[in-house]
Design brief:
Helices cover 37% and strands 20% of the residues. The chain is of the alpha/beta class. Helix 10 (226-238) links the parallel strand 10 (218-223) and strand 11 (241-244).
Length: 290
């Protein structure tokens, strides 16, 4: 994926074939003209510590400035808008060496926005981030695509995030042609399931997420509703149970009281109540292993 993005942005040359931007061969663009069409955010955890955030974002205006690097009124407006769109105005005077990884990624996106190219390319923009920052960055990119009308091309290994934010997916795998399409169309066509066919996990059509394939030996019937049912079902499947609505030697019912939820397990020897899913799972593992 990284090789493809670097080829599209002309960092490396193509092995074969041609690349066109708005109908013009990529090699015909001068460096400055291409920079006005395509901006690039590469994978990396680099922090040029001598710069302030505003100064780093301002570097995105390099295709529009002369040798002196002076910024015009329009340049300042583009920089301010980039800071505003990425919600980092409050960091403008901060030294970039003091930023967290999530903040730094926003700064690099802001620099690409200040460059004001029609196409933004980002290689693994969430690679070094925790869950909260990964979701925030993907949501930010989706919002930017809508608000700025730019084409934003992102490479990622996080298919869950891509599936729930992208308007079109390119599925790339070794030695096979790239498969493209709307995420939901690719699911209906079976492309997602086929491409990621594996005995250890499967793509769940109803949730739109990947789920581990646990070998279920024992069966348990489950009665409940709302979030308590979903979380209980997930926990039971995680420890190897097949959850069903049919009659079973093990019967579990849930009292969905937000203040005092209760899980009641019925089995041949009697019944037992639990105050949490953890207590239930510990009991099942000890006395009724799957």
């Amino acid at each position: 994926k990284s090789t493809l993005l670097k080829t599209i942005s002309r960092i490396i040359g193509p092995l074969s074939g041609d690349i066109y931007v708005e109908g013009i061969p990529l090699q015909r663009f001068s460096q400055k003209a291409l920079a006005k069409k395509v901006s690039l955010v590469l994978t990396g955890n680099q922090k040029p510590g001598i710069l302030k955030v505003h100064e780093l974002v301002a570097l995105g205006r390099y295709p529009y400035t002369g040798w002196g690097g002076g910024l015009s009124r329009e340049d300042h407006e583009k920089i301010d808008r980039a800071l505003d769109l990425t919600n980092i105005n409050h960091l403008a005077e901060e030294n970039v060496a003091t930023l967290s990884d999530g903040q730094m990624q926003k700064v690099m996106i802001a620099r690409a926005l200040a460059q004001d190219s029609d196409i933004m390319i980002l290689d693994e923009p969430t690679a070094f981030l925790d869950v909260n920052n990964r979701l925030e960055i993907m949501h930010l990119l989706k919002m930017l695509a809508w608000e700025t009308k730019k084409a934003i091309l992102v490479s990622t290994h996080d298919l869950d995030s891509a599936f729930h934010t992208a308007d079109k997916l390119w599925l790339a795998t070794c030695c096979l042609p790239i498969t493209t399409g709307c995420p939901e169309d690719l699911v209906l066509q079976g492309e997602i399931a086929n491409l990621f066919d594996h005995e250890a996990f499967t793509f769940d059509l109803w949730s739109g997420r990947f789920k581990a394939n646990f070998k279920s030996v024992r069966q348990i019937s489950l009665r409940g509703e709302d979030k308590y049912y979903v979380c209980t079902k997930n926990g039971l499947e995680r420890i190897g149970y097949k959850v069903t609505n049919e009659d079973s030697p093990l019967k579990l019912s849930i009292k969905s009281d937000p203040k005092t939820p209760l899980w009641r397990l019925e089995f041949r020897e009697g019944q037992r109540d639990f105050n949490s899913i953890e207590e239930l799972i510990m009991f099942l593992r000890a006395h009724h292993p799957a």
